[in-house]
Amino acid sequence: MLGLAPKPQTKTPPPAKRWRNYYRVYHVLTLYRVGTVFPGIHAGPDAFPSQELAEQHASNFLAAFNPPGRYIMDFVGAFPEGDAAN
């Protein structure tokens, strides 16, 4: 008949992932925004729009948090929300 082809279906891109930092804690700490944190791997309280921003924030935070020559907390990595570090 007319030879009309159906419209191609447009695919919507997946939602943007938010990135969360994970830290390894070596001592029992009481942090203002998080409360009491025990040794182990824990997620940070903030989510970031990109992995680069998350890693930069973790670098700045640990430089200010850890005293010179000691490690109270260490950076494990930045992972998309929903993925676990452990």
UniProtKB/TrEMBL annotation:
Name of the featured protein: Uncharacterized protein
